[in-house]
Amino acid sequence: MPPQNRILDRGDDDEVCPVCKSSRYLNPDMRFLINPECYHKMCESCVDRIFSGGPANCPVAGCHKTLRKNRFRKQTFEDINVEREVDIRRRVMQILNRREEEFDSKRAWDDFLEQREEIIANLVTGTDVSKTESDLQAYASENVRSIRANQALEAQEATSFQEQQTLEQEQARLRRQAARQEYEDERREILAGREDVISRLASGKPTDAATIAREGQKILLKKSSARRSEEERIRQKQAALRNSDAKKAGAPVATTERAGDTGLIKGLKKIKTPEPEKPYDPFMGMVPNKRDYYTLRDHYPSGYLDPIRQDTRMQAGGYDVREYYSRTLLEAFAGLGCFVDEEVSKRDASTALGLSRPATEGAAMAAVTSSGLNDEKI
Amino acid sequence: MAVSPLVSHSPSAASSSPAKLRAANVRSSATKPENASSHQPSQNTDRELTEQLNDEVRQKYVKDKRLGEGTYAVVFLGRLRTDPSSFVAIKKIKVNAEYKDGLSMDAIREVKYLQELSHPNIIALHDVFSSKDQNLNLVLEYLPLGDLEMLIKDGNVHYGAADVKAWMGMLARGVWFCHENFILHRDIKPNNLLIASDGEVKLADFGLARSFADPYLNMTHQVITRWYRPPELLYGARQYSGVVDVWSMGMVFAELLLRVPFVAGNTDLDQISKICEAFGTPTEENWPGVSKLPNYIAPDRNHLVPTQGRDFFLRQFPNAGPVGADLLMSMCTLDPRKRKTACEVLQHIWWTSEPRPTDKHDLPRKSGGTRKMGDDLTRRGGEIDENAFKNAARKLDFSAM
């Protein structure tokens, strides 16, 4: 409902409140306020007078909007149409605040931008207002979470941008200071070196003059190269610092909600919910103490092993008969469940695929060597 | 033709390096049984066959630049001939003056145990071959990111409790896997823990490893680098178990937390006294039978340090947290029978409590590890004085060679 044009044409001095007709000429402190409900302009005293007692109808003839006092505000733009469009735009943008990274393609993102402009234009020009409004409301209520998340992200970006700016300024200042300092140091050192050479020339023999002068030059050169390497070191450190800062500032991955069922926005990325992290398994999938054919007991009667159980020295050294039990039993059962035919066919299949198999070879070899060794021992 | 490939008695025993050729033989029987089962092979053709197979393996790899050299081995960077982007480290064992008639124990142990173990936290042995000059070459996994010692020592590398937990987890899994296969590593220390390009820690240097001893069989107590050696070995125990590695793990854990070796003795005696100071004096009360150990030294009755409790560990290692301190305490128990086994260590609640271990890809890392790998793999394991040795290794400049 665009306001009538005659309200808008006004001069600075003889501005007249359309409601109470008092003019700026009589009341230089007069301020005009508008309400985004209907954008009819009126002076502050009128607002106080009419709306202090609660919501009331707009006093402009023909306008039946109910206005509230707290919604009145100062006008930003001279043109009330611009004012209104900006308000509408702000509201729509707040609801349709999808971000580019949420879309499948550039094309989808552009489509979305166009769609948003169209909605804004509809609301501004007043075409299909009720349908557009209801669409917008439906979308807003369905995507509350993603809207809020994107708002938070935006706010964060704004603040981090500011931080970045101040940080950069600070760094520039430090650099300038360092450069100044460096220049000063160098100048002072050159002066000091020169003075040193002169004093030594004064005290030394005239024949040494050339050597002293050369030495002075050398010292100066050495100092300056040392300074340069020091500077290099500092610069590297600063660069590393900057990198780590940049890493920290890395934007968090936006988690997008599934778009509402109304399907107002097309081309949104399918949301991959990150797989919940599995609890840490200290054995990384292997099962400790798993034995297929037997259960290991803590004690087996054996006359052969009894002396060990009584030998304090072996016990104190930590020799553990259970390790021996475990090993002997494992070796006793090692051949069971090993089906050579199957393994051979599997191996041939894998060779056909061209896989290298150093592991199996190694195992076969190990089996041979270790069994041989055990036989020797027993 | 009916001879089984696995019972082919080794006719190559007359060769100069029996162990190597035996290995090649077994390998050949595993890969090409139809060749190995030739009826009554004459010595000559068999030699040719093994050499042929050896050549086949050797041709698989291309030697690239030298990564490091020690008294015991030279390490080269190598790559697969078929796939130049796949790196390997080729460790060439030097013919040693001490072992003129064969191979050094370290090399045999390394080959014997590494080829049995295939686990993400243990360095992989891809192949073994002998080069023209009869040297043994081990083709090992290429681990370019250096070792844990390098990260511990570098003040510019910052890491936290979650990173320590991740590293300890990988170490503990590697050790547990060794023990599950009845192998004692016996030289666990930060510079034997190499780091792969994806951040995975791998247990390397099996030069001192051996399988669990049968009952009544003596083992040597002169193993494990001194600072990481458990008290029972310092006291000369000849029968011990897997928990000797757990003590070393505890020392590595403490070193990761403190960033300096925790108990660093200059001599074996000094090491014992430092351990007593740190963890308590071993007595018959807290370690029944300790006084029967061969090298046991009766402690001075006036200077008995009581066994340290949980508060001590919590005070010493505040960044481990109470649960971590508890685990460390159980890894550093004086009495080996009360010490946790590698499996029990992994069952501790510390692993599942907060903070969660860092993902291996996000662990702190440092460049320049290739040289370090070269150094680590050329070192002979064990009892060499760490200080003297380390400095010597650092001083060697391989780039000029």
UniProtKB/TrEMBL annotation, chain A:
Keywords: Metal-binding, Nucleus, Zinc, Zinc-finger. Residues 223-257 are annotated as: Disordered. Its main location: nucleus. Coiled coil: none annotated. It is found in: Nucleus. Pfam families: MAT1, zf-C3HC4_5. GO terms for molecular function: cyclin-dependent protein serine/threonine kinase activator activity; zinc ion binding. GO terms for biological process: nucleotide-excision repair; regulation of transcription by RNA polymerase II. CDD domains: RING-HC_TFB3-like. GO terms for cellular component: transcription factor TFIIK complex. SUPFAM superfamilies: RING/U-box. It comes from the Eukaryota. Residues 17-60 form the RING-type domain. This is RNA polymerase II transcription factor B subunit 3. The lineage of its organism: Eukaryota, Fungi, Dikarya, Ascomycota, Pezizomycotina.
Automatic annotation (TrEMBL), chain B:
It comes from the Eukaryota. It catalyses: L-threonyl-[protein] + ATP = O-phospho-L-threonyl-[protein] + ADP + H(+); L-seryl-[protein] + ATP = O-phospho-L-seryl-[protein] + ADP + H(+). Keywords: ATP-binding, Kinase, Nucleotide-binding, Phosphoprotein, Serine/threonine-protein kinase, Transferase. Residues 356-365, 372-383 have a biased composition (Basic and acidic residues). Residues 61-351 form the Protein kinase domain. Residues 1-24 have a biased composition (Low complexity). One of its GO terms (cellular component) is transcription factor TFIIK complex. The keyword tRNA-binding does not apply. The active site is at D187. InterPro entries: CDK (IPR050108), CDK7 (IPR037770), Kinase-like_dom_sf (IPR011009), Prot_kinase_dom (IPR000719), Protein_kinase_ATP_BS (IPR017441), Ser/Thr_kinase_AS (IPR008271). Residues 26-44 have a biased composition (Polar residues). ATP binds at L67, G68, E69, G70, T71, Y72, A73, V74, V75, K91, K92. One of its GO terms (molecular function) is ATP binding. One of its GO terms (biological process) is positive regulation of transcription elongation by RNA polymerase II. Pfam families: Pkinase. Residues 1-50, 356-383 are annotated as: Disordered. Belongs to the protein kinase superfamily. CMGC Ser/Thr protein kinase family. CDC2/CDKX subfamily. This is Protein kinase domain-containing protein.
